[in-house]
Amino acid sequence: MQNMTGRFEGYYNWSETFTKDAVMTLVISERSLGKTYGLIKQCIYDYLNEGVRFCTLYRTDAERKEVAPCIFEKIEDDPDFKDEYLFKSNSKGAFIAKKPKEGEKEKWEQCAYHLALSMWQRDKKRGFKPCKRFIFDEAIIDSMDRYHGYLPGEVEILGQMLSTVARENEQNASEVKPRLYCLANACNFVNSIFIYFGITEMPKYGYSWYGSKTLLVHFVKPDEKRSELMKNETAAGKILSHSKVSRSNFDNKFLDANDDFIASKTKNAKFYMGFVFKSKTFGVWIDRNEGLLYVNEKIVKNSPYIYSLTTSDSRINLINLKKSSRVFRDMVELYYAGCIRYETIELRERFYQLLKMFGVC
Questions:
Q1: pLDDT score at 2
Q2: Contact in structure between 135 and 183 (CB atoms under 8 Å)
Q3: Which of 40, 110, 133, 318 has the smallest number of Cβ neighbours within 10 A?
């Protein structure tokens, strides 16, 4: 059985990405490019050739139970496997077997684990066989999705999960090197991975390294002909052509990828107030001559006008929220009037999430 090389026409090319051998890889592309399919297929080759398992990761236990049983629905019809192998998956793991001869039973072998990040403390008590590749799909949550959210400390939990399963130490570090692959669409620039690695500027198309070459981001440049075909010839493309969502789904462009209202505070701007929201500090400065508010991460120490809107465990601080509500109502009016400027795109989008609690939609 050979490794998967090259690419099928129109699908994501994993071969070049594998040669980079990053500890953590984030692939951002348009939808329906076959990222997940191609990666799972390579994981199957890994198991058949080397006997090493893979691991799929989900944010919650509910998501794991719903999605994990379906990971082989396309793979089982793949021409490279369908004549020789059988596949099955449940909420806890994935299995493979050679097609038995008539009258014989299948001999199932486990080739993958399915784990939920929310259960990592529990899973620390388990034992695992070596896993080479860890797959975290939908790593960036769509800003339109109001039913799912990032876990507190999500990237740290991903690291803890690799530690739990791989059990790397000085004796075995050279045996099976675990690699984490995060798969996403360009639906929200403000996401847990960009925030963790301090990515405040839009990545360029192609490969970029971050975090002392720990994170490799592959921002895939879309094929224009394919994008036009998807937009003009598919039902979803025709429906979404009237929406900005089309940029993310088919053009691989972040919906919030623009520099509207991005500006540094002026020399004449004076400190107005500060907020701490989900461990992020916002400093609000006012230039009365320009009639503008400027938002950055700088605050004046010991100022009485600094409000902590979340508690140490990320719950909403209702006392301070109520105390500052009148200020925020005024700020919402200024937001709609276009009178607020932000130092970075990330700050703009995170401050928008804060304003949503006070009526911005």
A1: 46
A2: yes
A3: 318
**Cα(335)–Cα(352) distance, rounded to whole angstroms?**
9
Residue at 222: amino acid letter? P
Q: Enumerate the β-bridge partners of residue 207.
A: 218
Residue 290 has pLDDT above 50, yes or no: yes
Q: CB of 331 within 8 A of CB of 294?
A: no
In contact, 305 and 274? CB cutoff 8 Å: yes
- For residue 292, what are the β-bridge partners? 287
Mean pLDDT of 234-251: 65
pLDDT of residue 257: 58
* DSSP-derived 3-state class of residue 182: strand
pLDDT at 167 exceeding the cut of 80: no
| Four-residue CA torsion sign, 131, 133, 138, 140 | positive
Residue the block writes with tokens 């200024």: 334
Q: Can you give the pLDDT at residue 1?
A: 42
Residue position matching structure tokens 């899973």: 123
The set of long-range contacts for 88-91, using a CB threshold of 8 Å and a minimum separation of 24, is 89/114, 91/64, 91/65
Contact residues for 306 (Cβ-Cβ < 8 A; gap 6+): 273, 274, 275, 276, 299
Cα–Cα distances in angstroms (integers) from residue 158 to residues 54, 117, 151, 164, 182, in the given order: 15, 7, 10, 10, 10
How much is the pTM?
0.76
Cβ burial 285-318 (10 Å sphere, 16+ → b, else e):
bbbeeeebbbbbeebeeeeeebbbbbeeeeeebe
Closest CA to 52 of 1, 106, 92, 112: 112
Residue 94 φ then ψ, to 5°: -120, 150
User: Which amino acid, residue 256?
Assistant: D
Residue 79 has pLDDT above 60, yes or no: yes
